[in-house]
Amino acid sequence: MTALLIIAGLLMALTGLLGCILPAIPGPPISFLSLLVLSFAKDWEPFNATFLVIMAGITALLTLSDYVLPTLFAEKYGASRSGIWGSVAGMLVGVLLFPPWGVLLGAFVGAIIGELIAGKMGKTALLIGWGVLVGNMVSIGFKLSFSGFVLVVYIMNMF
User: Fold this and answer.
1) What is the mean pLDDT of residues 101-109?
2) Residues with Cβ < 8 Å from 51, sequence gap 6 or more?
């Protein structure tokens, strides 16, 4: 039973890493769950409570930042409400049409279209779209770093 739990946890850690890029899979929460599975499988020996609480906090912050960072970057570049809603709509359309890269491209194009509808000129709308794209890339980078760290820690403590 222990071996099955360890294998399941490893698969969860790998899925968590993949979920950092695919929007339908919550990467960091699944990565964190893999640590809990390994801890349970090995009678709570590999990780102490402090480590797990810190990792849970980081997981929560990363999950929240996935929604906040693109908006903050868009606002920093001067996005209007139309641009932000356009980026959300573009992200949804993009993920349906050509996942996983549709999330990034869709949010970028959606923000530009939203700003054009709001009356901003082409260059300004393009700059705001760039802000949304940068915000999404920063968020993905943070998630990939966390989930990659979890995978390394998991593998180091598997045996």
Assistant:
1) 87
2) none
**What is the model's pTM?**
0.84
Q: How far apart are CA 157 and CA 143, in angstroms?
A: 21
HEC assignment per residue over the chain: CHHHHHHHHHHHHHHHHHHCCCCCCCHHHHHHHHHHHHHHHCCCCCCCHHHHHHHHHHHHHHHHHHHHHHHHHHHHCCCCHHHHHHHHHHHHHHHHHCCCCHHHHHHHHHHHHHHHHCCCCHHHHHHHHHHHHHHHHHHHHHHHHHHHHHHHHHHHHHC
Distance CA 84, CA 140 (A): 18
Cα 65 to Cα 35: distance, rounded to the nearest angstrom: 21
Instruction: For residues 143 and 19, give the distance between their C-alpha atoms in angstroms, rounded to a whole number.
Output: 9
CB 86 within 8 A of CB 115: yes
Compare 62 and 159 and report the one with higher pLDDT: 62
Sign, CA torsion 23/32/66/148: negative
Domain boundaries, the chain: 2-158
Question: CA–CA distance from 3 to each of 10, 32, 92, 93, 94 (Å)?
Answer: 11, 19, 39, 41, 39
